[in-house]
Design a protein that fits this description.
- With 522 residues, the chain is mostly helical.
- The protein has 2 domains: 7-406, no CATH class; 424-518, Serine Threonine Protein Phosphatase 5, Tetratricopeptide repeat (Alpha Horseshoe).
- It contains 25 helices and no strands.
- The chain has helices at residues 7-23, 35-41, 52-56, 71-84, 88-117, 123-139, 144-148, 153-170, 180-197, 204-216, 222-244, 264-283, 302-322, 324-337, 356-362, 364-370, 373-376, 379-406, 410-420, 425-437, 441-451, 460-472, 476-489, 496-501, 507-518.
- Helix 6 runs parallel beside helix 18.
Length: 522
């Protein structure tokens, strides 16, 4: 029996929910890794219920704390803390549920955009096309960094609130205007929550404008004018507060972010290489990495990068001219990518999580192909298209599962990162430390010695770990020499309380190193 709308939409939403939860189920057994170790496991601030009001009211933006500029994300960690304490499974479950919510919202958005062009057509295939395209987004390996690392949920939260605001605005009925005052307020509030989750949320006023311009500008302008003005004002007000309230000087953010290459001009020359890397990872996601730097773009010299970008941009420009739905998808992706394109210095020049939100816009492209007149005209073509998409999804799932495994433990993460990017400073510094904390002393010592043969030998934390490793292995003289070198490079490393308070190291590392320092001859 043929399922008709709206029952088909509900069935597909249920199927999408089961599918996403099944694919990411293994992440529930993962540890806290990377930034989660600092932001969730070792940061007492989020585990104190008295601080919840500080985050909810955005007063945290004036404090010298981690992610002071992302109060919504901090609040989400605090609510998780009330439920799960420091149990990583609960935080991973929250991330999975949030990703599921984004996937459902993206499905509804794609379905709406597709129906705008063909409102008179039987919506059954259009709904299926939206579902198939959403599957690509839901399981693409590029989303694993955001989904499988609880501290990276900021991108997911920004997507939840931003896409939610867009869907809410879409529900505006120009004939009746029923509920518009509430809808305008909620749209602006959701945009504020989006940018309060992560700066990428600043893209949504532009995305709202693009939607209105492409599909709804023939309507009376009152609702859209107020919505666009309010959401833009919310974003601007937040950005002003973000810089005006920033605590200075900071004992946590000791060094400000810098432009890749050192200057804006150099950044403009490097950014095409980063975009070419993103393009490669989008279509061939076999070499995803937790830390990208100049080594990661070594195979993308500027001329080749520009060629690869043009190879994608030219057909997309032509296709966008022919199909407004494609133009919206491309514009959505560009708007959400601009905040992380290093035009303003950021701490990580490139990251897989930066593509989480752009990917939600880009999947409109396969959706437009599936819903094209040529494919939709014959059932045989629809069947072939369905098989091809499901085959693609089947190819993506094992890669995604492998990335889930990489993000499951610190050791797996940093070993994988070091294999893909031998010049990764975080991997060089963190791998010996996590091996040390796991009791694998000899392996940790070998990794530290390997790092000391690289240009990173001047990093004080390599010497801190090396001192502890030598001390545990009974080489006390060597441990003292390594400790002196660490102190020479960073004198305040002897202040254990400060190092722990500012989240530069764990309590265990600070305590062990403090014992070595105490044994140094006066």
């Amino acid at each position: 029996m043929k399922i008709r709308e709206p029952h088909l939409t509900l069935v597909l939403l249920a199927a999408l929910s089961v599918f996403v939860l099944a694919v990411f189920a293994s992440s529930l057994r993962s540890d806290f890794v990377y930034d989660s170790s600092e932001e969730i496991l070792n940061w007492d601030f989020i585990h104190d219920p008295a601080n919840i009001l500080t985050a909810v009211t955005f007063r945290v933006m004036g404090m010298d704390v981690l992610d002071f500029n992302r109060p919504v994300a901090i609040a989400s960690f605090m609510f998780d803390s009330l439920l799960w304490g420091k149990n990583p499974s609960g935080y991973h479950l929250t991330n999975n549920l949030l990703h599921l919510l984004v996937a459902c919202l993206v499905f509804l958005l794609i379905r709406h955009i597709l129906l705008l062009r063909n409102p008179s057509r039987d919506p059954t295939w259009t709904t299926l096309a939206a579902f198939l395209a959403t599957l690509i987004f839901a399981v693409h390996p590029l989303v694993t960094e955001a989904v499988c690392e609880p501290a990276n949920r900021k991108d997911i939260l920004a997507a939840v609130f931003g896409v939610g605001a867009l869907l809410l605005a879409i529900r505006h009925d120009p004939k009746t205007g029923r509920g518009d005052i509430v809808r305008i307020f909620l749209c602006c509030f959701l945009c504020l929550l989006s940018i309060g989750s992560k700066e990428v949320g600043a893209a949504f006023p532009a995305i709202l404008f693009l939607y209105w311009f492409l599909f709804r500008r023939g309507e009376p302008k009152a609702f859209w004018s107020w919505t666009l003005a309010g959401s833009t004002a919310a974003a601007i007000a937040f950005l002003i507060a973000r810089f005006a309230l920033e605590h200075r000087p900071s004992v946590i953010f000791l060094e400000p972010p810098t432009y890749p290459g050192g200057t804006l001009l150099q950044t403009l020359l490097i950014q095409p290489q980063i975009l070419a890397l993103y393009e490669f990872n989008l279509f061939w996601p076999l070499y995803l990495c937790a830390d990208y730097n100049d080594y990661s773009v070594r195979n993308f010299p500027l001329p080749l990068s520009l060629f690869l970008l043009a190879l994608l941009a030219v057909p997309l420009a032509w296709w966008s001219f022919k199909d407004r739905r494609v133009l919206f998808g491309v514009g959505f992706a560009i708007a959400s990518l601009l905040p992380v394109c290093n035009l303003v210095p950021i701490y990580h020049p490139a990251a897989d999580r930066y593509l989480y939100l752009p990917l939600a816009g880009l999947v409109l492209l396969p959706a437009a192909i599936l819903d094209s007149r040529w494919v939709a005209a014959k059932s045989s073509r629809r069947q072939i298209a369905t098989v091809l998409v499901l085959a693609l999804v089947a190819l993506l799932i094992p890669i995604t599962l492998q990335r889930e495994k990489v993000w499951s433990t610190d050791i797996a993460l940093w070993q994988d990162t070091l294999a893909l990017n031998p010049r990764s400073l975080p991997a060089r510094v963190n791998l010996p430390e996590v091996l040390l904390l796991k009791g694998r002393i000899e392996e940790a010592k070998q990794q530290s010695e390997a790092t000391l043969r690289t240009p990173y030998f001047k990093n004080p934390w390599v010497w801190v770990d090396y001192a502890i490793e030598l001390n545990r292995l009974g080489n006390h003289d060597g441990a003292q020499k390594a400790a002196r070198q660490a102190i020479h490079l960073k004198p305040d490393v002897v202040d254990a309380d400060k190092m722990v308070r500012t989240l530069q190291c764990s309590q265990k590392i600070a305590t062990e190193f403090g014992q070595i320092v105490a044994s140094l001859p006066r």
